[in-house]
Amino acid sequence: MDANPQTFDDDFCVVFANTGREHEATLDFGHEVEMRWGVKIVWLEYCRENDAHSQKVVSYETAARRNAPGPFDAWLSITKTLPNVRARGCSSDLKTRIIKRWLKSIGVETYEDYVGIRSDEAHRKLEILAQMPKYITGKFPLCDDGTTKETVNNWWDAHDFRLNIPNHQGNCDMCFLKAKWKRLSIAQREPQHAQWWADWERKMRERGVTGRGAQWIDGQSYEGIIAASQHPEFDFSEQDVPCSCAVSGYRDADDEGHKTIKLMDAPLKTLELPQDATGAFHAAHCSLPVYYEDAAVTIYHADSREVIPELPLQKFSLMATDPPYGMAFGGFRGVEQNVRADGARQGIRLVRSVVFEAMPHMKEDAHFYVFCHWESWPDFYDALTAYINVKSSLIWWKNRGGMGDTEMEYARDYEVILYGATGRRPLAGKRDGAVISGISPEGNIKTRCHPTQKPEGLMGYLIEKSCPPGEWVLDPFMGSGSTLVAAKQRGRRAVGIELNEAYCESAAKRCASEMAMCEAENDGTERPPGTSGAEGEARPNE
Q1: How many whole angstroms separate alpha carbon 297 and alpha carbon 304?
Q2: Which of 114, 144, 178 lies at the terminal end of a domain, its last residue?
Q3: Does pTM surpass 0.85?
């Protein structure tokens, strides 16, 4: 406030998102700032409205406290797994996304992301910047001007109030990102609050959740932490897991009808998406702009992690997708066609977070097909088993070789498809073998719409096995739209999401062409030769 007085005008406010697990001292501190300095604070909390994620404005007096069920409980009651280090849905859904939605509700579309990282923790700045999409500008004023922890403490020592929480406790009491010794110490002093975390692990087990989805931390139960806190052995060398929740949830695109308010000196330019006429699915379920829609498919040009939470719950019978493989694909023989987020670590992290977001929107008996590479499939398997029961792997035999060392390697003539489910709905038809043959890749890499484009016949076979007619397919990494075209051809409906606008355009053209052909057939016109879209028929080996 002292350094930036020009910022504190009528449009300025502080937004605080309360999960109900914040330390009471945090709420007291915010109220002190309101009263002493006259800072306007908007207190927000997560809630459910019409079976969808929403938010509400509360106050210091009405904000949820740890001694009663609150927003965190409401959110966990509809999730299928507990958040964890790999998938921090609590940070995104309970904090950053509700702030984003509230900003949109008052007409604010452009803003910069100011993060309170100090100069003595500059490594966190690099991690956050690495995760930020290109259309968000990260600002780190404390880090950039050399502010250290000592500087901050000295500044607060000059005032007669401050945030009175011991350093080892932090804000969210038993957060799974804290070092184990810190959680042991808190459990020893506040066992009643530690019990909340153990209770939710028990509730997830009672729902039938197993494995990683039933624990906040892999291999560590909070009941075990509480028991160990009676006679703790502290390992002070263990460090916290860095928290990057400042980024999650602020990936969004422009939406028609919202005015832009200048919040900082250089407001961020928002993405411009095509504003096509929207159909019944989009209008009924999602507040984000639609790129293309017809009677059978809907396409969003956006980050899947932003679109999926807006989709209806328990909607999709099948997820069939070809995500970034984590292999840093970068073109072939001079063809520059980079796949966004296809670096090894980034690709696996992206898939894990997207599947986590999608789980509440899949039906109880949903099926899943996820393509992966022979080098990265173990990481994909680990990412998926936290949420679904991976039943088997399929092999798509391409019947021709691929890239690689032609002298020292066997031909790369296959891809791995992990198949899983969340219930016991059987596959359609007879029991097929796990090797799918008779379907060659689409064209070559210079003629495809997408460098890793899958044949419509292959996607159609998977859809027929796992999605009943008339039901919905979700493809969160749509690419050029093979899944959507195959679904439409076979009487299913589909939602596709893609971050690259060029691929959205290709997918929209393919879907529109297929729609025109379907309408022509309904009028008695024959489909032109070679335009059925399904290249070959799947012949699984028995």
Answers
A1: 16
A2: 178
A3: no
